[in-house]
Amino acid sequence: MSAESSKTTLPPQHQERQPGRESEMQPPPASFADHYVGSGRLQGQVALVTGGDSGIGRATAIAFAKEGADVAIAYLEECDDARQTRQAIEACGRRALAIAVDLGDEAACRQTVERVVGEFGRLDVLVNNAAEQHPQDSLADISSAQLERTFRTNVFAMFYCTKAALPHLQAGARIINTASVTAYLGSPHLLDYSASKGAIVSFTRSLALQLVDKGIRVNAVAPGPIWTPLIPSTFAAGEVGHFGANTPMERPGQPDEVAPALVFLATDASSYMTGQVLHPNGGRIVNG
User: Which CATH number fits domain 40-225+255-278: 1.10.443.10, 3.40.50.720, 1.10.599.10, 1.10.3720.10?
Assistant: First the structure.
């Protein structure tokens, strides 16, 4: 192990179930609950954030609320985390909706979008953020069930949610997808996950070209190692203790260090950008 990667960045810890629980993480991820001050850049708009109960999704949902948006979050089964996120949105004076759903099912995605539009009357920003990962040392160890599960959550759900949302998106709407630094650097232990994230980059670029004439912008973020529930629920305790140490900044990022990139892509500040990917990754150069 190199001197860089041996640096301890977090208390070693592990959660036995996926999705992980933010309420069980020490220290808890930073999610804008206190210090972020909005400036009304999303006033009166409606956003749907998948995987919005925790991590990057939670920080993004709260930031959007502080910018004036009503926010719906979709989550799998992390009810306590989702409740806390909903309360944080409401504490910003905005309306919130939390929907427990398996986004790997197309009908469920369609029902989720219809519920958001029925509740809030419109949809302006779709954030496709939900994801899962399952490390394996060898391609031979990746079962067909794991491969399908990874792509169903990470890629199929993105297609399904976007397809369901499009009839409700007007000119000026924004779609933001969460890719990963692994789409550019690869990962020997996250082969199927990295492949799914590479698919998201291509999906983002292609959809942007398809929708540009409709005035709908499509962009993505590709975070590096970020302290979210996915980490302790994926890796062994010892690996968590060194998580993020091999970046130039020698530490993991926090969700509230990624969410500003999504706020930028969700507002008119990024009006001349579509088909692009932003890289909050701790200093890694990926030329992507």
Answer: 3.40.50.720
